[in-house]
Design goal:
The complex is a heterodimer of chains A (397) and B (156).
Chain A (H helix, E strand, L loop, with lengths): L10 E8 L3 E2 L8 H16 L8 E5 L6 H8 L6 E5 L7 H13 L5 E8 L1 H4 L18 H16 L3 H15 L13 H6 L2 E4 L1 E2 L7 E11 H4 L7 E9 L26 H4 L5 H11 L8 E4 L4 H10 L8 H6 L17 H4 L6 H12 L11 E5 L7 E7 L1
Parallel strand pairs in A: 3-4, 3-5, 10-11
Antiparallel strand pairs in A: 1-8, 1-9, 2-8, 5-8, 6-7, 9-12, 11-12
Chain B lengths: L17 H8 L4 E5 L5 E2 L14 E5 L3 E10 L5 H4 L4 E8 L7 E4 L14 E8 L5 E7 L5 H6 L6
Antiparallel strand pairs in B: 1-2, 1-3, 4-5, 4-7, 5-6, 7-8
The chains are: A alpha+beta (397), B mainly beta (156).
Chain lengths: 397, 156
């Protein structure tokens, strides 16, 4: 074992839990704290543990549901660890899992709950940023920012909006088997063509939809995991980071505020990515694995082009070939295909900022997915293309 | 000078950034530059990412460059912005700087048929008030068909 692989297999997911998935505004009166509490209870039921034994809490994206308050609500016997991943969007999700894994592997905590919960009054509108009076150049949404990356990718590599459509079509097809999913009707390329343009080149069907939810994933040490209710799902690797000068990514340059640093100045070859090039290298090195070992990929799909870039970043094809990869039938559940976003993803299941991508990776390794990949042994989860840090994880048996 | 579009906010001036907006108000495009190693950087920040010097000055740059990427906002987010109709948000990579400088901006005088990556552009200034203006861009040459052909932008 190399030093890089120290954390491999030392922590495991032992419980997952979530509320119903709601449209924007559906759970406003309950609030996200209530949703997270329900999700934690369900995750503890899944794991077969007492919630009072959770002694560590982590989250990301500046989630408002603080671990210290959850510990008090549940009557935690002895709070020992909390951790928050900086950054907006879902970028630091893998960081929340990395903190959790390091904590249980090094004895800082016995059980760490990774939580994320959102209702709109707590968090404001998603998909909107900038000052109240409007930013100087009219860049107001992540969709507009990622459209800049998408356009550059199209220009450099000949990627088309029909390639983007394949990601949305796949998501709806997978969600059609998932009873929890918000959007279960399948769609065609023609539906994508007819979908209104929101910010060229992106159509409405290239966007995920604001959602309300509570989610929780519980990790413990590999040793403790052996004695619990579910077959443990091992965390093989987790990595977070960003390439040089990534900073605020496409949001930079006085798009959303005064303090954007880095931003639009990433090298051209990194601009046309989800910011995951270095994360992918670290992720695979820490697991001693490569893309050929991955049986199923759950890639954060807030906007369809970012999934194509994720497929490239995580080395399933060469840089620039992702459009052809998805349009030439290389994603799907058939022989020789890459199973992608087998729960329906942000686009079709729920926009829960990546937490349900982890749920689905866990179900695939447990063998309980609605779209089960036979004998799945390694599942990749890629967190959101976003400002730094971005992140990713590998789960396995 | 171009007319400001409704719904576009004014920049928030700080001690660090006001020189940029005030220079634009005087019709000059300036970029923060390290006194010690000469590297340009943007948006303004206290330290040089190359040599870590905290000494810097505003450096006037030629104001020419190329469109790096762009999006057309077909569905503006606010009613005020909708009055402007479909507008573009563009990224322009500047000539004549040390390091890579790309400005988030708007390109004026183009439409969906004429705005494209690598289009040569030059700076213009969109006045906010007596003191400041926003650097924006416009095509560096006329966009009639003959000139686009001669510039190699479209085939004859």
């Amino acid at each position: 074992m190399t030093q890089d692989e120290w954390l491999k297999g030392k922590a495991a997911v032992v419980g997952i839990g979530h509320t119903a998935y709601g449209r924007r505004g559906q759970f406003v009166e309950r609030g996200s704290f209530s949703l997270v509490i329900e999700a934690v209870q369900k995750a503890c039921d899944d794991a077969g543990i007492d919630p009072r034994d959770i002694d560590g809490w982590t989250s990301y994206s500046n989630d408002v549901n603080q671990g210290g308050l959850l510990a008090a609500a549940f009557g935690t016997k002895r709070l020992r660890f909390t951790g928050m991943g900086w950054g907006g969007g879902g970028g630091a999700m893998g960081g929340a899992y990395l903190y959790a894994a390091m904590a249980v592997a090094t004895g800082q905590a016995d059980y760490v709950a990774v939580v994320r919960g959102v209702t709109m009054p707590d968090n404001g509108r998603f998909g909107r940023m900038g000052t109240t009076e409007g930013p100087p150049y009219g860049l107001m949404t992540p969709g507009q920012a990622f459209a800049l990356a998408a356009r550059r990718h199209m220009y450099r590599f000949g990627t088309t909006t029909d390639d983007f459509a394949q990601i949305a079509i796949n998501a709806r097809l997978m969600a059609s088997k998932n009873p929890d999913a918000r959007f279960r009707d399948t769609i065609t390329l023609e539906d994508h063509h007819n979908s209104p343009i929101i910010c060229d080149p992106l159509h409405k069907l290239d966007f995920c939809m604001e959602s309300e939810f509570g989610t929780c994933v519980i990790l413990t040490s590999a040793e403790r995991a052996k004695d619990l209710k579910q077959p443990p799902v091992s965390l093989l690797s987790a990595a977070m980071g960003a390439p040089p000068r990534w900073g605020d990514a496409m949001f930079g340059g006085w798009g959303g505020g005064d303090e954007n640093v880095g931003g639009q100045y990433a090298p051209d070859d990194d601009y046309v990515t989800g910011g995951h090039r270095t994360v992918a290298e670290d992720l695979y090195a820490k697991a001693g694995l490569g893309p050929n070992d991955v049986d199923v990929a759950e890639i954060y799909d807030h906007f369809t082009p970012m999934v194509i870039m994720g497929i490239e970043d995580f080395q399933f094809c060469k840089k620039g070939e992702g459009g052809g990869f998805v349009s030439d039938g290389k994603i799907g559940l058939g022989p020789g295909q890459l199973p992608l976003n087998t729960h329906g993803g942000n686009l079709a299941e729920v926009y829960a900022h990546g937490m349900t991508h982890v749920f689905e990776a866990v179900r695939q390794i447990r063998g309980t997915s609605y779209n089960q990949v036979p004998d799945a042994e390694v599942a990749l989860v890629v967190a959101g293309a976003s400002m730094a840090p971005t992140s990713a994880m590998l789960f396995g048996k | 000078m171009s007319e400001r579009m409704p719904g576009f906010g004014a920049p928030h001036l700080t001690a660090l950034n006001e020189g940029y907006w005030k220079a634009a108000g005087q019709g000059r495009l300036v970029i923060q530059r390290c006194d010690d190693c000469g590297t340009h950087r943007h948006v303004p920040v206290e330290i040089c990412y190359q040599c870590h010097s905290r000494n810097w000055h505003w450096d006037e740059v030629p104001g020419t460059g190329r469109v790096f990427s762009y999006t057309w906002v077909d569905r503006p987010l606010s009613p005020e912005l909708a009055q402007a109709g479909v507008y573009n948000i563009s990224v322009v990579e500047l000539d004549g700087v040390v390091g890579t400088i790309r400005l988030l901006t708007n390109v004026f005088g183009v439409d969906k048929d004429t705005l494209e990556c690598d289009l040569p552009v030059k700076v213009a200034f969109d006045r906010v008030d007596d003191e400041i203006a926003l650097p924006v861009f416009e095509p560096a040459f006329a966009l009639n068909e003959a000139e686009r052909v001669s510039a190699g932008k479209v085939s004859a």
